[in-house]
TrEMBL record:
This is Uncharacterized protein. Belongs to the trichodiene synthase family. It comes from Dendrothele bispora (strain CBS 962.96). GO terms for molecular function: carbon-oxygen lyase activity, acting on phosphates. Keywords: Lyase.
Length: 180
């Protein structure tokens, strides 16, 4: 938590997510997981600027069990693997895929930051947003692990759309309030 490589600033970014959406799960480890998970997503985005190599190899190293090229990414891999002990198998698998898509989206955004989006590529921004939101993780974590997956999996697409669009809607709302 201390020193040049402190994780503390990133936790401050993850805490509001857990407090605002997961307090109904206070008898579980989910709020702590969400705090740390969100903090790691912020960390990954930050590390990408300084160590593209470590982030670009994260998914491969995660799936093969190799040590990550950044010691904090090892901790992130451990956290992701710990999800398997607290969520149903199908839920964990979707969370894992969503996390890997997030990392891929970071790399895609970096690779294409100078690209011009073609007029006909109308679905491309939605694709990148759906990959970069890790929305499935945040949506599925809402449900207590004791609730059968069949009871909520069919609403996952709507939850993902809501989560992916929430940032845009909230920023527009806040701008309107500030100018009023």
């Amino acid at each position: 938590m201390k020193g040049r490589h402190s994780f503390r600033p990133f936790i401050a970014g993850g805490l509001p997510m857990a407090i605002n959406a997961y307090t109904h799960l206070k008898d579980t480890k989910v709020p702590v997981f969400i705090t740390l998970y969100t903090a790691f997503l912020i960390y990954l985005d930050d590390v990408l600027c300084h160590n593209l190599d470590a982030v670009s190899e994260f998914n491969e190293r995660l799936t093969t069990g190799k040590v990550q090229k950044d010691f904090m990414l090892d901790h992130f891999a451990t956290l992701i693997n710990e999800f398997s002990q607290h969520f149903p198998r199908i839920v964990y698998n979707i969370m894992l895929s969503s996390t890997m898509n997030f990392v891929t989206a970071l790399l895609l955004e970096k690779e294409t930051e100078e690209a011009t989006i073609h007029r006909g590529a109308t679905g491309y921004p939605t694709l990148v947003r759906s990959m970069s939101g890790a929305s499935e993780v945040f949506a599925l974590a809402i449900f207590p692990p004791c609730v059968p997956v069949i009871n909520y999996v069919q609403v996952l697409p709507e939850l993902v759309i809501f989560i992916n669009n929430g940032k845009y809607v909230n920023s527009r709302f806040m701008k309107r309030r500030a100018s009023a």
